[in-house]
Amino acid sequence: MPLRSAAAAVILVSSSILAGESSAGDIRRGTFVCKMMGQEISRESFEIREDGWWAKGKLDLFGQTKNEYEITEKRSDGKTVLTGSSNANDVQSEFVATFEQEKATIEVTRGGKTQSIPIDLKGKSPHVPFINLSWIFFEDVGRLVAARAAAGSLPADFLIHAVDLGSAQTLSINVKSFGVSQKPLGAEMVPIFAFEVGIAGQVEASLHTTASGVPVFFGVPAQKLDVVVEGYEALKPAEKAPSTIVDSGEWRARLSKAEHKIASEKKVMIPMRDGVKLAADVYRPEIENRKVPTILVRTPYGRAGEGIVKGNAFAPRGYAVVAQDVRGRGDSEGTFVPVFNEAQDGSETLDWIAKQPWSDGNVGMIGGSYVAWVQWLAASTGNKHLKAIVPQVSPPDPHENIPYDGGSFVLSTAWWAVAVQSIAEGKSPFRGDVDYLKAFATLPLTDIDKALSLPEKTFLDEWIAHPQEDPYWEPLRYQQRFASIDVPALNISGWWDGDQPGAPLNFAGMRKHGKSERARKGQMLVMGPWTHIFNTFSKVGDHYDFGPDALVDLDSVSLRFFDRYLKGIENGIENEDPVLVFTMFENKWHREKDWPLPQTKWTKLFLGGSGTANKKDGGGTLSLENADSPADTYVYDPMRLPDVPDIDFSDVTGKQISMDLSGLPDRDDVLDFLSPPLAGPVEITGPVSAVLSVTTDAKDTDFAVGIYRIEPSGYTTAVRGGIQRLKYRNGWDKPSFAKPGEVSTLTIDCWATGLRLSKGDRLLVEVQSNGFPGHARNLNTGEPDAAATKAVVARQTLFHDAARPSYVLLPVIPREDAPGLRFETKAED
């Protein structure tokens, strides 16, 4: 499962800023001051020299990570040598790093022992050194990009490879845009270069440098982190004031104020029913003689980062924060069995919190991905202390997304297994050294763990051994227990989120079935133009730019939610229309009354043609009218892998979402159905599905649908898609094989989207049977996935006539300037 670790996000923010003083208004020496959430966390003195630089700094990351360090960089004859020492959390170490054109060596001495680490940098040029949470290293970045910008040779999406001297891993720094303006620096007006950059595929940041590349400001708005050269605070750009319907309004004046000092307790061991103790960090406001509500975060990714971010965000505002390692992770005892212990452990942690002398018994939960999943599982226990949750990018039930989707095993589950293991080993979860494409093709499916060099016993084998209808999954089916769940929820996700179905399904389900009126009325849904790393990038890949309103102040929205449901503050949140959706390519937020949107005009787009749609120019059509047309057939051979674009499985920015797919080869096992150009703009916001009339001569098989947008230039990008195993055509809990040749009506869930298409755009619908590499292949034999190794070839037939239609069902939203879906006619041409 994709993940969002607050700890990783904070750590990977580190690449930053420098300063000093020189002639020509440049800076040669000075001090970087770094603040996070308004609190100073580090100071770093520096000096820029002719052959390099020197820096000495002190870091205190909210008491969690402390470090004092000194570093020198010298450059000569194409070689860069860095020497340094640090005392991090009372651990003394020294290092020497040598960088040459295609290689580097890092020697680290700690505890009297020296380790030498060689690094291959072939194909990774340009590269720069990097140390986490030290700011001097962005002098190397600034010098590199400023020189190219001044020469007019800075290409779009310029990539720099940053070599982390702590982990010996390479991080990406993408320079996405550049601008220049005149600013007062000392007594002079000097040019300041402003670069928008993406760091490690996780955060968007701003880097401002002098013309020679000396950084004067570095900021990450999503993390409320900024670094500025002391004495040059005037160069810090003004913060963007909240201005969207999501994060602005009179309610901001009633938010809890940051007015309390913080007291913290680290590694508090909380006992569970069976004697296992789970480790937690507790952050509390220093308030005398008053109990406070609590916000709980339960994570398998390391409680430290969650505690730092959430503790210092909420504790000054009158909330206690408990950040806990789940069972078997971090400092917690027991064995980590993903998800299955979280309902009971979560409920018992809630009970423990309610008994503490500082707790008023009202508890909320917050977090993303797995950290959202645990919230719904805790809520499903009916624990009376849980009063509100903020699940972000939450997975739904196991048959809706992970590990099964449409009856097919989702291969990103194996990606997540690698990520979880990597974190346990102290490595980055976003591994670039794993051949996922090769591993995913492994048969039988249970050998994937071996192909990925995972330990012999992991949860992967067990999950693969239990198909989606197996009672094994019953403890995790929280969506069937909405009637027993009595908590308001702020559901947050993105149109490109890999766990996207959770948020809209949970919102709609709780609105209809929630236990009380408070729970039903207290549901909110926010859907942005985001990936699983939500509210972090306004740009997705090289082709999509969703504008300045794509990133919003969700921290304040969450605070408002907790203020209402944990503190009882009357801020009007429950009286507003509860759905906020961002329309991509209109780049605008809309507030709506319900999900799906009540004004939806459900529109069928019928597949048709001459029966030769297994060629791109075979005449497959999309039309608003259903008509008799001959069926299409194709042969599905599971051993013939699909042609896929160059996939970087370590990339979490969504770059591949906006990749041009027009150059993929034409295949005879894929049916193509193309629409005429649109006669005008149209908005499609809501759940998308496909209904196919099909037959097969195999015992069982899969059918997959892909929906694409083709711009007038021919640039082709994915809109949505889905897959469905034939034996689950009557429901995930009613498996039955179809008879060979029997016509089946198959409904394929393509999840949801929210976008505006433009005049002249075309829609393309593809039908095939191979969902690889997103999903495990169906070998057509009807055998369980766990053991199947041999495949049979299937002949598939897709009907599209009056009696057996096939179509895509689109949620068209009428707007004043986009009244509906219509195509150009020959007369209009």
Tally of contiguous helical segments: 12
CATH superfamily of the largest domain: Alpha/Beta hydrolase fold, catalytic domain
C-alpha Rg (nearest Å): 27 Å
- Percent helix among the residues? 10-25%
Architecture overview:
With 829 residues, the protein is mainly beta. It has four domains: 6-232, outer membrane lipoprotein receptor (LolB), chain A; 254-400 and 473-592, Rossmann fold, CATH 3.40.50.1820; 408-466, no CATH class; 601-645 and 655-813, Galactose-binding domain-like (Jelly Rolls, Sandwich). It contains twelve helices and 40 strands. Strands 8-7-6-5-4-3-2-1-15-14-13-12-11-10-9 form a 15-stranded mixed beta sheet, covered by helices on one side. Strands 16-17-19-18-20-21-24-25-28-29 form a ten-stranded mixed beta sheet, with helices on both faces. Strands 30, 31, 32, 34, 37, 39 and 40 form a seven-stranded antiparallel beta sheet that branches. Helix 4 packs across helix 5 (370-379). The longest helix has 14 residues, at 342-355. It starts with 5 loop residues before the first helix and ends in a 16-residue tail after the last strand.
Short recap of the structure:
This protein is mainly beta and 829 residues long. The chain contains twelve helices and 40 strands.
Protein topology:
Elements: H1 6-11, E1 29-36, E2 39-49, E3 52-61, E4 65-76, E5 79-88, E6 91-99, E7 103-110, E8 113-120, E9 127-130, H2 138-150, E10 158-164, E11 170-185, E12 188-199, E13 203-210, E14 215-220, E15 225-229, E16 262-271, E17 277-285, E18 292-299, H3 303-314, E19 320-325, H4 342-355, E20 359-368, H5 370-379, E21 386-392, E22 404-405, E23 408-409, H6 412-424, H7 436-440, H8 448-451, H9 459-465, E24 489-494, H10 502-513, H11 517-521, E25 523-528, E26 539-540, E27 544-545, H12 554-566, E28 579-583, E29 588-592, E30 601-608, E31 621-623, E32 632-636, E33 671-674, E34 682-696, E35 702-710, E36 716-725, E37 744-757, E38 762-768, E39 794-799, E40 807-813
Parallel strand pairs: 9-10, 18-19, 18-20, 20-21, 21-24, 24-25, 25-28
Antiparallel strand pairs: 1-2, 1-15, 2-3, 3-4, 4-5, 5-6, 6-7, 7-8, 10-11, 11-12, 12-13, 13-14, 14-15, 16-17, 17-19, 22-23, 26-27, 28-29, 30-31, 30-40, 32-39, 33-38, 34-37, 34-39, 34-40, 35-36, 35-38
Helix pairs in contact: 4-5
